[in-house]
């Protein structure tokens, strides 16, 4: 293959007269040609403006074929008349690129379709002969290199009223491509995308980024020579070429490639489609988009477009890939995917990459999605394009960074999203930081795409928010008991340090907290999406649960930076005025046609390619289907699912007609005759048709297919999984008394997907539209629904039992939790209160994390209400209190104490024993060690009276030893552990029926106490040995990830003291990832404190101080009393020894000492000694806090520290005053003593 060739214009007299010379890189002559064109020849007219010529000369009813014929004739003419002998010389040389040198007077040729020249019947573009338009100036100068990562800015601009483009599809495809290059191919690529609200100001701000951009990809509307951006109100803002170059100027030093294309309007495309379908489109679809007939004199458009491309190349010294003609979005997507893949991943030079991409994506024969004009549409400009390579460097090693995964928890983006430009632009304006709005309500009929719009907003604006939280409310008609708590839980998971769930049952406390929540949302940039809110509202817009109103008001009652997006069929009656309310209605006809072409069944009908159907009949059916769906996306999908069978589709359309006749206004007849959406159709009308169509489609299924459809609709959303269907379907089949072999579910599910009743989703789930699911459940009937509930409850119970049995005698902990929670909704519908409560108790026994507790609480409250006054009340109240411990410890303690007192009165020692056990843990966690020890001894006595078995009695002894260890009696505790371990060896391997504990639980309790006691005594290796044995037990039973991390965490201190600093750091980093992923605030407090310890050991004092301050904030939020005393002590050390802030260090040492003295915990002597050391160095004794209030003011300068509240909960004011005075006296006396 030859290198670069030079094709130069000489003696240019006019667009009909010039001379070519072709030379190789060394200047050797290869060919020349005197060009003499006949301006009267129709092919010259077409050559002058091919796009316009085809528009006005191709027959409308066979446009694709007619355009292909005209393009082939013009291509032959260009090859013979414009290139002559130069064409064969180019083919023979096979150059890497051809530098087309155009003097200023000949620049008009840059936007003539030169690549269309056919040699031996094939265009140059498809022979990989890349032409690059240059001005003959000096070679390009130096540019900043790509650097650590290739930076790509994608600009997709569609102003309101600018027509209909499927830019979202192109944007989504490009984002996916570059994400794959990074995640799958290991390339370092950063892509930023702008769509909706793309104003000059916003673009200028991004282009000022100090790092600069390597590639700018621009796609959207625009007249020749300009681009159409947006004004702040969404209206079009035409940007002339010179202004656009000025906007890009700040990134010129790094910029290497600009891609510019104006996409074909979907309205224009729809007009062609309608003509092909035999329907006359409205004038508004094509009038403004179609230029007048071409003439040899009409060259202003090509001149303007040439100016844009050449200005970019000349002034910015970059390569430009521009489109001579508007492109169809499918072609633009395919071309970009091929081009950037070859350029960025494969390292191909730009000219070669473009040639290879064209050969891969140009359709033969041409199609509506890749018309004949596509082959000559892309053109390269600028000398830099000749050898440009943009290989992305190798990426960094894959690491888990939770902070960068802000979209975690969001549903995946839908594969199709068409139109909605005005709605998304208006919503985008409201989401802007300084908009003054606080939220957006997207309301409208079911199935119109409200959720899709919310996802579009979330994904396209995530970069401008620090946190993105998504919550889907239950489907309408399903149980919403726990919806409010679930919403608060999702907020907690996303916003570290936020604690709301414990306030869910205390409206007074909740209302008192809400002003703080409002202030937080005002000052921070958080996006919260509440999807599917209609289930939370009454028909007149009132909240079914009154707690929602104040919380929504709190989230929107500000003029700050956060935003709330709500989707709902019903408009809430009372919303803050700062919430922008946007209707999401049916698609107008142009957008509906665009969506229909993306659906394979309807597309085949529109193209006349449906098997067994005459093309004219197929197109008539397509028109009827699109009209009957009347712009409703889900109705279009259902029609698409029947399109392969014309009889089935006709039946659906007849049923749709009948359903429309039952509505108030009937089916409007003007769908294809108006530019905008037809009025007079309500959401209820569409819902009626959706229900009827669902019934018809389901009615057309076989009996087995109909049963499986009903089964899927009756499942909980999280249970629409392959393994659940495969396991339960055969059992349900037999339960329903069906005859014959059980049909394979995979094959039947394929039918449901093809018919449009279901869709595969991420994670192996099967998605069912809420309206379709509602219709499916109704059609299934009560008997069928009851059968599903019974079998799913039994299925999850069996999984639970198998998980408890486990493998090799060791249970599978995570499956115990999943199965137990999975069975509960079905049991509740069956009113199986006792079984549901028992399962939830077993689940909490294995995993009492906050995440599990908040899921269990709503169901437990419902069970408690149902069994009130009955024999199961005590057990349910205990389980409810157990769950409450995690979210509201004080409420849990009150319930447990009441339960214990009632049980004592009834001489129910078993209940007393269980309740006291939980109270011991609560007192231990809150630092009331003396009370914890007393309760532990009471529990031992109650268990003996109750007749519990040896494992339970051993567990009671172990809990008492745990309290002793927390009180600092480590030697006694370690000896007790060894004694109890010997007793345990004589017990049966598994706990019997007379036990309320599992053997593994007792074993791990003793190992935990032994590990902690050994660590306190400085027996580091022994502590690690205890820990290894405990972790082995946990792995064997399949403990949850957070539980494993909490246990592993305790190894860090022995490792640190053994000078294994890096190993300790690695361990803590892993724990931190787990705690962040699960929003475990208590675990995060501990791990941050431990990381501060490690940084102190490394000599990084400032880092240690920062981490310990963060740790205190988390520990106070979690009310981890003993742990926060440690953090006060450690922070005092770092402030005194590392930062020289003695007064601040003293305050924290005194705070630690006071807390330890009040709770009776260990660490008091260490804190007193540290305070004494501080006092010796303190220059002014007046800096010693005079009383408890002064101490609290000092330490509460650390954000999140609430020492005064903590102390008030631990002791009365007199006790606190007396204890503090004793501490000050002891420290002062010791500091004044010699030595």
TrEMBL record:
Pfam families: AAA_16. Residues 416-535 form the Orc1-like AAA ATPase domain. InterPro entries: AAA_16 (IPR041664), P-loop_NTPase (IPR027417), TPR-like_helical_dom_sf (IPR011990). It comes from the Bacteria. Signal peptide: none annotated. Gene3D superfamilies: P-loop containing nucleotide triphosphate hydrolases (3.40.50.300), Tetratricopeptide repeat domain (1.25.40.10). This is Tetratricopeptide (TPR) repeat protein.
């Amino acid at each position: 293959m030859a290198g670069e060739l030079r094709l130069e214009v000489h003696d240019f007299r006019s667009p009909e007269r010039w001379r070519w010379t072709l030379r190789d890189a060394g200047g050797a002559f290869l060919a020349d040609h005197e060009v003499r064109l006949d301006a009267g020849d129709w092919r010259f007219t077409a050559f002058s403006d091919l796009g316009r010529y085809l528009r006005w000369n191709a027959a409308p009813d066979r446009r694709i074929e007619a355009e292909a014929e005209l393009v082939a004739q013009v291509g032959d003419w260009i090859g013979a008349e414009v290139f002559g002998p130069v064409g064969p010389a180019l083919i023979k040389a096979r150059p890497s690129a051809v530098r087309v040198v155009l003097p200023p007077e000949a620049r008009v040729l840059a936007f003539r379709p030169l690549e269309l020249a056919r040699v031996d019947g094939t265009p140059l573009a498809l022979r990989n002969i890349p032409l690059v338009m240059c001005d003959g100036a000096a070679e390009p100068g130096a540019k900043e290199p790509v650097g650590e990562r290739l930076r790509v800015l994608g600009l997709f601009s569609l102003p309101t009223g600018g027509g209909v483009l499927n830019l979202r599809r192109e944007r989504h495809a490009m984002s996916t491509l570059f994400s794959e290059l990074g995640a799958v191919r290991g390339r370092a690529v950063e892509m930023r995308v702008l769509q909706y609200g793309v104003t000059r100001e916003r673009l200028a701000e991004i282009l000022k980024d100090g790092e600069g951009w390597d590639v700018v990809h621009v796609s959207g509307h625009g007249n020749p020579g300009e681009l159409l951006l947006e004004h702040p109100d969404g209206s079009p803002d035409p940007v002339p070429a010179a202004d656009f170059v000025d906007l890009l100027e700040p990134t010129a030093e790094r910029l290497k490639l600009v891609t510019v294309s104006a996409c074909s309007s979907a309205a224009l495309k729809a007009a062609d489609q309608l003509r092909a379908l035999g329907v006359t489109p409205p004038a508004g679809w094509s009038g403004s988009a179609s230029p007048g007939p071409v003439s040899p004199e009409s060259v202003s458009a090509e001149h303007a477009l040439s100016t844009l491309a050449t200005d970019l190349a000349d002034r910015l010294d970059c390569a430009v890939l521009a489109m001579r003609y508007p492109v169809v979005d499918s072609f633009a997507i395919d071309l970009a995917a091929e081009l950037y893949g070859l350029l960025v991943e494969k390292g191909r030079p730009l000219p070669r990459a473009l040639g290879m991409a064209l050969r891969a994506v140009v359709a033969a024969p041409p199609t509506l999605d890749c018309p004949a004009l596509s082959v000559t549409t892309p053109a390269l400009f600028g000398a830099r394009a000749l050898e440009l390579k943009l290989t992305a460097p190798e990426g960094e090693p894959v690491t888990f960074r939770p902070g960068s995964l802000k979209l975690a928890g969001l549903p995946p983006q839908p594969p199709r999203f068409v139109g909605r430009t005005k709605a998304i632009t208006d919503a985008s304006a409201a989401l802007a930081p300084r908009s003054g709005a606080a939220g957006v309500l997207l309301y409208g009929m079911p199935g119109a795409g409200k959720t899709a719009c919310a996802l579009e907003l979330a994904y396209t604006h995530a970069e401008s928010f620090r946190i993105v939280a998504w919550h889907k409310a239950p489907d309408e008609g399903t149980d919403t008991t726990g919806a409010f708590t679930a919403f608060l839980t999702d907020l907690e998971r996303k916003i570290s340090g936020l604690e709301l769930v414990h306030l869910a049952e205390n409206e007074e406390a909740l209302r008192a907290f809400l002003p703080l929540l409002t202030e937080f949302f005002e000052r921070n940039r958080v996006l919260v999406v509440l999807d599917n809110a209609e289930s939370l509202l009454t028909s007149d817009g009132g909240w079914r649960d009154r707690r929602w109103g104040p919380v929504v008001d709190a989230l929107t009652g500000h003029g700050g930076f956060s935003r709330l997006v709500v989707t709902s069929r019903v408009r809430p009656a009372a919303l803050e005025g700062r919430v922008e309310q946007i209707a999401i209605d049916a698609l107008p006809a142009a957008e509906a046609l665009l969506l229909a072409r993306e659906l394979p069944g309807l597309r085949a009908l529109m193209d006349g390619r449906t098997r067994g159907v005459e093309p004219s009949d197929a197109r008539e059916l397509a028109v009827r289907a699109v009209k009957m769906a009347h712009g409703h996306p889900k109705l279009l999908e259902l029609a698409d699912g029947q399109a392969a069978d014309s009889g089935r589709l006709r039946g659906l359309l007849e049923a749709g007609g009948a359903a429309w006749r039952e509505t108030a206004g009937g089916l409007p007849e003007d769908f294809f005759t108006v530019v905008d959406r037809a009025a007079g159709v309500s959401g209820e009308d569409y819902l009626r048709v959706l229900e009827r169509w669902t019934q018809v489609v389901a009615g057309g299924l076989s009996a087995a297919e109909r049963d499986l459809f009903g089964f899927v609709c009756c499942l909980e959303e999280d249970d629409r999984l392959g393994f659940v269907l495969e396991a339960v379907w055969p059992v349900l089949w037999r339960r329903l008394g069906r005859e014959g072999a059980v049909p394979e579910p995979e094959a039947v599910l394929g039918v449901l997907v093809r018919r449009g009743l279901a869709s595969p989703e991420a994670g192996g789930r099967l998605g069912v539209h809420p309206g379709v699911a509602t219709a499916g459940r109704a059609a299934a009937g009560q008997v069928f629904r009851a059968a599903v509930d019974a079998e799913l409850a039994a299925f999850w119970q069996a999984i639970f039992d198998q998980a408890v049995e486990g493998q090799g005698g060791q249970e599978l902990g995570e499956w115990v939790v999943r199965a137990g929670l999975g069975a509960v909704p079905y049991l509740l519908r069956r009113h199986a209160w006792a079984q549901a409560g028992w399962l939830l108790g077993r689940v909490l026994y294995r995993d009492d994390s906050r995440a599990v507790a908040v899921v269990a609480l709503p169901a437990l409250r419902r069970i408690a209400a149902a069994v009130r006054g009955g024999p199961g009340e005590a057990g349910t109240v205990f389980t409810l209190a157990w769950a409450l411990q995690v979210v509201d410890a004080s409420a849990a303690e009150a319930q447990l104490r009441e339960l214990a007192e009632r049980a004592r009165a009834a001489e129910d020692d078993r209940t007393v024993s269980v309740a006291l056990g939980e109270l011991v843990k609560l007192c231990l966690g809150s630092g009331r060690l003396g009370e914890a020890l007393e309760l532990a001894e009471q529990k031992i006595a109650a268990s003996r009276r109750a007749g519990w078995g040896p494992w339970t009695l051993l567990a009671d002894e172990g809990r008492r030893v745990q309290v002793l260890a927390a009180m600092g009696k480590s030697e006694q505790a370690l000896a007790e552990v060894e004694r109890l371990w010997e007793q345990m060896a004589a017990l049966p391997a598994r706990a019997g029926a007379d036990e309320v504990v599992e053997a593994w639980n007792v074993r791990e309790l003793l190992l935990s106490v032994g590990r902690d006691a050994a660590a306190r005594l400085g027996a580091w290796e022994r502590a690690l040995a205890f820990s290894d044995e405990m972790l082995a037990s946990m792995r064997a039973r399949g403990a949850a990830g957070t539980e494993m991390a909490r246990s592993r965490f305790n190894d860090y201190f022995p490792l640190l003291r053994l000078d294994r600093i890096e190993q300790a750091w690695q361990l803590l980093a892993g724990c931190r990832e787990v705690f962040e992923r699960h929003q475990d605030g208590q675990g995060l407090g501990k791990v941050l404190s431990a990381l501060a310890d490690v940084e102190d050991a490394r000599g990084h004092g400032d880092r240690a101080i920062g981490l310990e301050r963060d740790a205190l904030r988390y520990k106070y939020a979690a009310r981890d009393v003993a742990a926060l005393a440690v953090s006060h002590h450690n922070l005092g050390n770092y402030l005194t020894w590392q930062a020289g802030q003695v007064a601040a260090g003293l305050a924290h040492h005194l705070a630690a000492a006071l807390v330890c003295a009040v709770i009776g915990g260990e660490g008091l002597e260490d804190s007193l000694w540290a305070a004494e050391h501080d006092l010796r160095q303190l220059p002014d004794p007046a800096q010693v806090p005079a009383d408890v209030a002064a101490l609290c003011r000092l330490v509460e300068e650390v954000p999140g520290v609430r020492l005064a509240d903590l102390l008030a909960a631990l002791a009365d004011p007199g006790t606190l005053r007396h204890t503090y005075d004793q501490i000050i006296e002891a420290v002062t006396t010791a500091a004044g003593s010699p030595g």
